[in-house]
Design brief:
Strand order of the largest sheet: 2-1-3-4-5-8
Protein name: NmrA family NAD(P)-binding protein
CATH superfamily of one domain: NAD(P)-binding Rossmann-like Domain
Bound molecules: NADP nicotinamide-adenine-dinucleotide phosphate
CATH class of one domain: Alpha Beta
Structural class: alpha/beta
Radius of gyration: 19 Å
CATH topology of one domain: Rossmann fold
Organism: Myceligenerans pegani
Oligomer: single chain
Length: 276
């Protein structure tokens, strides 16, 4: 029998990204009507082209928002303010926003969404474990060097499949409106410990190279240009000061089970990559 939530249209902004793809896939598997939104979809959604947002959100009942490059980036608050205006006009009935844990700039965007008048939930996540296998840090698998300005700080990396399962729960079930959930994995690890795990699981030598902020900025500048270099350097400076080391019980609170640990997630991802 169809529940009321199953008769609604769900949209995912960033539906080809790490969390968005998983959220869209889970919703589809559970039988929900789903509209995937990104720059290559129809309708198209581009953060740089607000004139197309109304068309993308027309007829949408529930919306999952992932913002790029990051809610801590300059201009994110203006974009999120405009998005919630368009969503309100389109009569979107529920919004879930993905946020980055411990980022001051992201908190401004969270407040905009939570104060928008649209029933909303914020899911604030620690760094994804999948950054090492499908994200910005996956180059270490080829180069053998995991280079980042994180010192000996510990991060309770979270499984993005856990994040997606939480997002789907709060999107489809009542009672989470107005809440902000912090999601982490079960144990804080240094990047050196992750490099050691990657070495063990791949059988290849992968070393952590702790950079200072200037070295890191120069390295990213070469690869990705000045905006990304400044954004990522400032993010490292902000969040790797110890504020995010402590794990939370957000995943257990929503899913009723423990979050998956880094070793299990990496092992599964590397096995899947070998089979592909
Ligand atoms: N990665 C993490 O560890 C982490 C942790 C916590 C929170 N977050 C938050 O997650 C968000 C995205 O991060 P992610 O690492 O998951 O991203 P991602 O995997 O790189 O995915 C980015 C998504 O955004 C789309 N996109 C790129 N440029 C776009 C544009 N101009 N307009 C519309 N869509 C665009 C991409 O699709 P197309 O290229 O197909 O358009 C893709 O679907 C950020 O707000 C970040 O703060 C990330």
């Amino acid at each position: 029998m169809e529940t009321e939530a199953q008769t609604l249209t769900y949209a995912v902004i960033g539906a080809t990204g790490k969390s968005g793809r998983r959220v869209a896939d889970l919703l589809e598997t559970e039988g929900y009507d789903i509209r995937r939104l990104a720059r290559g979809t129809s309708p198209r959604f581009d953060w740089e082209e607000p004139e197309g947002w109304e068309r993308a959100l027309r007829g949408v009942d529930r919306l999952y928002v992932t913002y790029v490059p990051d809610l801590a980036a300059p201009g994110s608050d203006a974009a999120i303010t405009r998005l919630v205006e368009v969503a309100r006009e389109a009569e979107v009935g529920r919004v879930v926003l993905l946020s980055g844990r411990g980022e001051q700039g992201a908190r401004r965007c969270e407040e905009i969404v939570l104060g928008s008048g649209i029933p909303a939930t914020v899911v604030s996540a620690s760094w994804f474990t999948q950054n090492f296998t499908e994200g910005a840090l996956s180059g270490a698998l080829q180069s053998g060097f995991l280079a980042i300005a994180a010192g000996q700080m510990r991060e309770p990396f979270v499984d993005v499949d856990d994040v997606a399962a939480v997002v789907v729960t709060v999107l489809t079930r009542d009672g989470h409106e107005g809440h902000r959930y912090e999601l982490t994995g079960p144990e804080p690890l240094t990047f050196g410990e992750v490099a050691a795990l990657l070495t063990e699981l791949t059988g290849r030598d992968i070393r952590y190279v702790p950079m200072d902020f200037d070295e890191f900025h120069a390295a990213v500048l070469q690869e990705a240009g000045p905006e990304t270099a400044t954004l990522l350097t400032e993010l490292c400076r902000e969040v790797f000061d110890g504020r995010n080391e402590k794990p939370t019980d957000g995943v257990r609170e929503i899913l009723g089970r423990a979050p998956r640990g880094v070793r299990a997630v990496l092992a599964d991802a590397l096995t899947a990559a070998r089979r592909a």
